[in-house]
Design goal:
Elements: H1 2-36
Keywords: Membrane, Transmembrane, Transmembrane helix
Protein name: Spermidine/putrescine ABC transporter membrane protein
Transmembrane segments: 12-30
Length: 37
């Protein structure tokens, strides 16, 4: 039970670590696009 919870949290941390930079990049691109138009 605890092991499953830890594994789930670990996977969530990995996905967050992978996806947060991508999300930041998309947000920056959208902001540039909004400023340009």
């Amino acid at each position: 039970m605890i092991g499953r919870l830890l594994r789930g949290g670990f996977m969530t941390a990995i996905y967050a670590y992978l996806y947060i930079p991508i999300i930041i990049l998309i947000v920056k691109l959208l902001q540039q696009f909004a400023v340009r138009h």
